[in-house]
Amino acid sequence: MSDVTVMRIDEFDTPNGGGFCRARASLGVTAFGMQVEQFPPNFLHHPEHDHADDGQEEVYTVLSGSATLRVGDREHRLVPGVFARVGPGERRQITTGSEPAQLLAIGGTPGQSYTPPAFSEIGVALPG
Fold it and tell me: How many helices (H) and strands (E) does the chain have?
């Protein structure tokens, strides 16, 4: 038996109607974090955050649509084919303009085994 999992995004576990798709847990990935986030047009509610406490760096790429990645006082336009890496100590926020965006986020802590946050596990509620 081969060690392969193949799924469509709409088959991933999602606790909030499809906005946050648990790609890592749904596929059985254990080496790094990975999720698909689906943002509607004019979305301004993605929490500004950093990973200073856990040391995780993240890579973002847009699968469809476009989004703006704000890091400090700089803005970066994300469109399909553009990748952005954000270091652990950088405050970041993702917003959209007039079109929706489907974004892939990949994360891990350099030099450490990946430990998934509880909310990323199948069946667990998202934080507050």
Answer: 1, 8
80-95 exposure pattern, b = at least 16 Cβ within 10 A, e = fewer: eeeebebebebebebb
Structure-block tokens of residue 40 = 């509607």
69 phi and psi angles, rounded to 5 deg = -100, 120
pLDDT in tens, the chain (128 residues): 689 999 999 999 998 888 899 999 999 999 999 999 999 999 998 889 999 999 999 999 999 999 999 999 999 999 999 999 999 999 999 999 999 999 999 999 999 999 898 889 998 888 87
Q: What's this model's pTM, rounded to 2 decimal places?
A: 0.90
Residues 6+ apart with CB under 8 A from 1: none
